Amino acid sequence: MPVSLYRIDDRLIHGQVVVGWGQPLDLGFIVLVDDVVAESEWEQELYRLGVPPSMEVYFVSTADAAREIARYTADRRTGMILTGSVETMLTLARTAVRPVTAVNVGGIHHREDRTQKLRYVFLNEVEEQELREMANLGVVVTAQDVPSATAHSLEALLRGCST
Amino acid sequence: MDPDVAPRAIVAGHGAFPAGLVSAVEQITGRGNALVPFSNAGLGREDIESGIRELIAMHAVEVIFTDLPGGSATLAARRVQRDTPGIVVVTGIGLASLIDFVFCASDMSAAEAAEHAADKGRAAIVAVVA
Q: Which end of chain B is more exposed for a tag (fewer CB within 10 A), N or C?
């Protein structure tokens, strides 16, 4: 079973990821790609709190994820690759030994330098450019917070929608 | 709202759930002022954490109730707890816990009242099978 979802979500592991996507996809594992969390046992323990025993979590750095992605895609269980930033996902798309074909923008929240695009997506100019670059690499980028919601194309996302 | 009731805890969680719970506590007990609702809606990790920190500083409370054990509000509450002495986090809460908490004796410590509320909440969950 290939990795089912490459998701950008600045809350990392939380209810939407574990329950909203985890249950319908029957996720067997999550690869949390974050250089800070990969170095902190305390943060890792915190994120494990919200994950059921049946779901495994790998905490890896961006460099390790790019190297190990073939191992995750070869896993027989359904998996999710999760990053907290557009930049990290773009790095994966550029450097992973297996191509990243589709990316789900699931949640990038308000910050001073960002403009609202969707209820759950705010982007600054750099992030917009990074998403465009991802698309130029052949990655299909869509925005969708939960499975039952509408998936917005990159064009619609950058234009800004009301929902 | 009873103006003589001071805030004793924050209720943090998803969407309108915190405000709904506090509203229900007020409707049943008239002591909704004891609880300060905080929603994570539209907020990133840092803003959830800083929002909870601000409310703790503003109201000098020591208890944070949250809705979902692995939810973003709970994770933020745990981060606050890590560097704020005396904070108690109670997760997985419902109305029974909060009602118990707002009636806890004022001479109870925050930790005692929180544990009592958690016990009450656990005991209140019953599957009624016809």
A: C
